[in-house]
Amino acid sequence: MQFQVPQFIDVEDKVVGPFTWKEFVYLAGGAGVCILTFKIVSSFFLAIIIVAPFVTLSLLLTFYKVNDRPFINIFQSMLSYFLSKKLYIWSQPKQDPNKKAVQSKQQELTKIAMVEEAEKVLTPDKLRELTWSLDVLDKK
Predict the structure, then answer these.
(1) What span, in angstroms and rounded, lies between the C-alpha atoms of 17 and 110?
(2) Taking residues 24-32, what's their average pLDDT?
(3) How many CB atoms lie within 10 A of CB 30?
(4) Is the pTM of this model over 0.70?
(5) What is the pLDDT of residue 118?
(6) Alpha carbon separation from 81 to 5, 54, 87, 90, 110 (Å, rounded)
(7) Are residues 134 and 75 in the same domain?
(8) Where are the alpha helices (DSSP H) in 2-123?
(9) Is residue 95 included in any domain, yes or no?
């Protein structure tokens, strides 16, 4: 017995022309808001200013995708972020008393190492001896 496995289940059906049901509702909602605004507001330029954000949102919801995901997902995330309460807490990290002792020891050791390096100054005699040993070893 063979069963047919459904394929392409993540593709939505085109209901109204080239648009899916959701896309059609977004466009129809934007058009409805535009028509109502133009009927209610007497000034044409004021109506255009009021309608522009709704038209933009309607077109974004219908056509714009971010990383192959619908804009509605990004819009919902944005709204939930802006409308949720945020609590920022910063506390100063506690200082370990042993850490301060270790740091002071390390500083002392670095000072000692710097003094020892300063004592290892290259004198002309040491330089002459070094060049002679290099010349002798090089000629072998």
Answers:
(1) 77
(2) 95
(3) 20
(4) no
(5) 62
(6) 40, 21, 12, 20, 50
(7) no
(8) 21-40, 44-63, 71-83, 97-119
(9) no
